[in-house]
Design brief:
The complex is a heterodimer of chains A (115) and B (110). Chain A has no helices and eleven strands. Chain A starts with a strand and ends with a strand. In chain A, a hairpin with a 3-residue loop joins strand 4 and strand 5. Chain A is mostly beta strands and 115 residues long. The radius of gyration of chain A is 13 Å and the shape is globular. Chain B has 110 residues and is mostly beta strands. Chain B is built from no helices and eleven strands. Classes of the chains: A mainly beta (115), B mainly beta (110). Chains A and B meet through strand 4, strand 5 and strand 10 of A and strand 4, strand 5, strand 9 and strand 10 of B.
Chain lengths: 115, 110
């Protein structure tokens, strides 16, 4: 089954404790992206990747890191999480003859709470 | 900062009504306009991706139009059904950067 998976689905952590949210897709998509969803603010793009070893900042990259060492994986790293990073996070992937041209397939979401 | 505006914020209709929503976006550096449907407790699902001025796309009772010169897109739902209840998101694509509007929340009463 074609899908985007994220782990963990739920996480409660404390300020300053490094964490990684994994994202994996099995559709051989070139493009992958991370978003956060906050009430009243809509979906906002954190980072995106047009292909392996190519990453770019979205609209809200501060406090996050990403890497794209393999085509299928695009982990989101929070080196020192803070309470303002409490949010619902979505990973998405797409075919990239243009990246943003193509419909994105979203993962199930990760609910992160930073105390 | 690029801004994508959607209106109305919410809409309540009766089953069988037809409805439409608006998405306004910058008319410069345009690559694509996406529409997604997002049901509560699920993930967004793609409806359409449009790239050319004048594009019209249709999927069942749902259709969309695109005007890149004036920076707007319309989403139409003909004969709304309760299962159409969801938040409809549009997103402006400028190369890899995708900027979402805040969505229009549609509620369809039986």
């Amino acid at each position: 089954e074609a899908q985007v998976t994220q782990n963990p689905r739920y996480l409660i952590t404390v300020t300053g404790k490094k964490l990684t949210v994994t994202c994996s897709q099995n559709m051989n998509h070139e493009y992958m992206s991370w978003y956060r969803q906050d009430p009243g603010l809509g979906l906002r793009q954190i980072y995106y990747s047009m292909n392996v070893e190519v990453t770019d900042k979205g609209d809200v990259p501060e406090g996050y890191k990403v890497s794209r060492k393999e085509k299928r994986n695009f982990p989101l790293i929070l080196e020192s999480p803070s309470p303002n990073q409490t949010s619902l996070y979505f990973c998405a992937s797409a075919w990239a003859s243009g990246g943003a041209y193509n419909e994105q397939f979203f993962g199930p979401g990760t609910r992160l709470t930073v105390l | 900062i690029l801004n994508v505006e959607q209106s109305p914020q919410s809409l309540h209709v009766q089953e069988g009504d037809s409805t439409n929503f608006t998405c306004s976006f910058p008319s410069s550096n345009f690559y694509a306009l996406h529409w997604y449907r997002w049901e509560t407790a699920k993930s967004p699902e793609a409806l359409f991706v449009m790239t050319l001025n004048g594009d019209e796309k249709k999927k069942g009772r749902i259709s969309a139009t695109l005007n890149t010169k004036e920076g707007y897109s319309y989403l139409y739902i003909k004969g709304s059904q309760p299962e159409d209840s969801a938040t409809y998101l549009c997103a402006f694509g400028s190369q890899g950067n995708l900027i979402f509007g805040k969505g229009t929340k549609l509620s369809v009463k039986p």
